[in-house]
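Thread: quick sanity check before group meeting

JM: Hey all, I'm pulling together slides for Thursday and realized we never actually wrote out the predicted structure for the chain we discussed last week. Dropping the sequence here so it's in one place. If anyone has concerns about the input, flag it before I start.
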Amino acid sequence: MTLSATLSFAAVVGLLTLTPGMDTALILRTAALGEPRRAWGVVAGIQTGTLIWGALTSAGVTALLTASHLAYEILRWAGVCYLTWMGLTMLWSTFRGRGAAADLPVEKAGNTFLPGWRRGTLTNLLNPKVGVFYVALLPQFIPAGAPVFAAGLLLTSIHIGLGTAWSAVLVLLARRLRRAMQRPRARRLLDRITGTVIAGFGVRLALSDR
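JM (edit): ok, ran it. Output follows.
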């Protein structure tokens, strides 16, 4: 690996990491509700998904997403269903009066790591755009003659490091809002915003082309 390739990759994924999106909304929502362990579970889950995508891309497996229309469509619609369900469940819970204490049916409300990790991992892995992004980006920064799998994992670890550092900033910022989020109206508003963002990503994924 050359230093210039490594720095170039870090710059590209650094900008991607700083761009607000679904991951940002999910981390902020969880941390702001006073659930730091679950928030760190979400962070760990997102980075677990990134590691898996990076490893699969380095091994050449995710090239199937660009080569096989069926494989891409199966993963895309699984992601559409999961993201839309998660977002609409958050929205529906606020209108039923359960507020932010309610969570997805597969999870129990509380400050626990594992449910957050599960949610973060599924959210990342069920987004085929991440896999296609890695297929398109990662090989460009691996020098000719370098061991592809090892170099790919090294670059992926840089992405994970930057993502974890930025997530730590988000968690700390969100925890400052924890007192304000104790108000039921503020909690419902946060869940409605987050649910809309996540469901919107699901709809966007459904309408997007390969």
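AS: nice. Residues 3-207 form one domain. The chain has one domain: 3-207.
JM: adding both to the slides.
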